[in-house]
Amino acid sequence: MCRGVMATEQARSGRMPVVVCPSQLDFYLDQQESHKQVLTLYNINDFSVRFQLLSNAPRRYAVAEPEGLLKPHSFTDVVVRHREAVEGNVGRRDHLRIIMCEEGGRLHGHRDVPATLRPARSRGDEPCSASSVPLEPSPGTERQPSRGAANGPSFAVVVVALACLVALVLPLEGASSSSHPYLQLTHQQKLIAAYILGLITMVIVRQ
């Protein structure tokens, strides 16, 4: 059942926000590990939603769990694997559609995520190889160890991620069941928190 003014307005239009990260999938022909990508789906609503993942080329992609249920203020990872990573499909741009609908209700929404098979990852995206020559420090300076590589994400990144998680858990603005109206957030604020959390997740995974 819809709650609050914001939910009531959405019920009239029959639309609901669909938050997905990343916004596009890039597979690379020359990198086997890139043939498997992860889509993170967020439910920023006060009610459970059902999701379903569709594609305009279903034979080209394999999804372990193409549909399921998301509880309020939660997220899930969906693994997408490219099954036809061959030269003939290089440059082909497909679309994955994520459909979400309110469980037992009329609210629904969808988002399209482009999926492209590329020939090779650009040099700017590749990690440094063993044959690369590192830059030498200037005379009189000391070489500092890389804290990010040794200790994982920095304290500031962890704090921001926790703040975003708290923002997603807080009730929506106008929710009648909330006893602390000053802790309520708007849909726009929750969308921003979900987007930032998705970016942080990608950074941590790539480290």
Automatic annotation (TrEMBL):
GO terms for cellular component: cytoplasm; membrane. It is a multi-pass membrane protein. This is Motile sperm domain-containing protein 1. Its main location: membrane. The keyword NAD does not apply. Keywords: Membrane, Transmembrane, Transmembrane helix. Residues 110-149 are annotated as: Disordered. InterPro entries: Ig-like_fold, MOSPD1/3, MSP_dom, PapD-like_sf. It is found in: Membrane. Residues 20-106 form the MSP domain. The chain crosses the membrane at residues 153-172, 187-205. Pfam families: Motile_Sperm.
